[in-house]
Amino acid sequence: QSALTQPASVSGSPGQSITISCTGTSSDVGGYNYVSWYQQHPGKAPKLMIYDVSNRPSGVSNRFSGSKSGNTASLTISGLQAEDEADYYCSSYTSSSTLEVFGTGTKVTVL
Amino acid sequence: QITLKESGPTLVKPTQTLTLTCTFSGFSLSTSGVGVGWIRQPPGKALEWLALIYWNDDKRYSPSLKSRLTITKDTSKNQVVLTMTNMDPVDTATYYCAHRRLMRYFDYWGQGTLVTVSS
């Protein structure tokens, strides 16, 4: 089972919007609406930001939004803030025996 | 309120077996659709999913580590145990356990425990 592909880094200025892509296959991202996104600050545990492609858990800012097209899912952060600087990982349900696959991770830098 | 906490040795020697325990509260691992997973992260590297166990005792493993991993649950103690055999320095990582909801995502994570493999 190969990891989902994410860009290594994405940057933006405060107030801007950025988008992180997550590319898989028809066996994972493209086949199910079960993509999730996690934010991880240095030295901290990951935090769920988006589940089932576009749903936000209670307490997560509406500046975070998710979408999917074909085999690629996306996380958009609007109104970028300094506190958004972190690593972001996507994940997807997969039809393989593992049932789960993570992305390679993206470092978001706020300029 | 759901909480999870990992416990186990911080240092293991090469070839030894690692045993990690995830102790949780706020949910039952006998509830339909619920699971607990183990995920690790080597220093400076990406998350790597290791294993999952579900309420019905369905178990899944990372293909690359399957021969070395065993995941079990003790519902009465609210614990999930992960064992990894033949530890190697490349297995040095922070190991997390997490609550899996509806078999689709991890919504609560433990704080993680750093395990160093060194002689």
Helix content of chain A: under 10%
One letter per element, helices H and strands E, the order of chain B comes to EEEEEEEEEEE
Oligomer: heterodimer
* Cα-to-Cα separation, first versus last residue of chain A: 35 Å
The tally of beta strands of chain A, per DSSP, is 9
- Regions of chain B with pLDDT < 50 over 5+ consecutive residues? none
Structural class of chain A: mainly beta
**Judging from the principal axes of the Cα atoms, what is the shape of chain A?**
globular
Shape by Cα distribution of chain B: globular
Strand content of chain B: over 45%
What does the average pLDDT of chain B come to?
A: 95
Rg of chain B, Cα atoms, Å: 13 Å
SS element count, helices of chain B: 0
The major pleated sheet of chain B works out as: 7 strands, mixed
Q: Count the helices of chain A. How many?
A: 0
Helix content, binned percent of chain B: under 10%
Unreliable stretches of chain A (pLDDT < 50, length at least 5) are: none
In short:
The complex is a heterodimer of chains A (111) and B (119). With 111 residues, chain A is mainly beta.
SSE inventory with pairings:
The complex is a heterodimer of chains A (111) and B (119).
Chain A lengths: L8 E4 L5 E6 L11 E6 L6 E4 L13 E6 L2 E6 L8 E8 L6 E3 L3 E5 L1
Parallel strand pairs in A: 1-9
Antiparallel strand pairs in A: 2-6, 3-4, 3-7, 5-6, 7-8, 7-9
Chain B lengths: L2 E5 L3 E2 L5 E8 L9 E7 L6 E7 L4 E3 L7 E6 L4 E6 L8 E9 L3 E5 L3 E5 L2
Parallel strand pairs in B: 2-11
Antiparallel strand pairs in B: 1-3, 3-8, 4-5, 4-9, 5-6, 7-8, 9-10, 9-11
Question: What would you say this structure looks like, in words?
Answer:
The complex is a heterodimer of chains A (111) and B (119). Chain A is mostly beta strands and 111 residues long. Helices cover 0% and strands 43% of the residues of chain A. Chain A has no helices and nine strands. Chain A has strands at 9-12, 18-23, 35-40, 47-50, 64-69, 72-77, 86-93, 100-102, 106-110. In chain A, the strands form two sheets. In chain A, strands 1, 3, 4, 7, 8 and 9 form a six-stranded mixed β-sheet that branches. Chain A has a three-stranded antiparallel β-sheet with strand order 2-6-5, with no helix packed on it. Chain B is mainly β and 119 residues long. In chain B, 0% of the residues lie in helices and 53% in strands. Chain B contains no helices and eleven strands. Chain B has strands spanning 3-7, 11-12, 18-25, 35-41, 48-54, 59-61, 69-74, 79-84, 93-101, 105-109, 113-117. In chain B, the strands form two sheets. In chain B, strands 2, 4, 5, 6, 9, 10 and 11 form a seven-stranded mixed β-sheet that branches. The N and C termini of chain B lie far apart (40 Å). The model of chain B has no long low-confidence stretch (mean pLDDT 95). Classes of the chains: A mainly beta (111), B mainly beta (119). The A-B interface holds A 1, 3, 34, 36, 38, 40, 45-48, 51-52, 57, 89, 91, 93, 97-105 and B 37, 39, 46-49, 52, 60-63, 96, 98, 103-112.
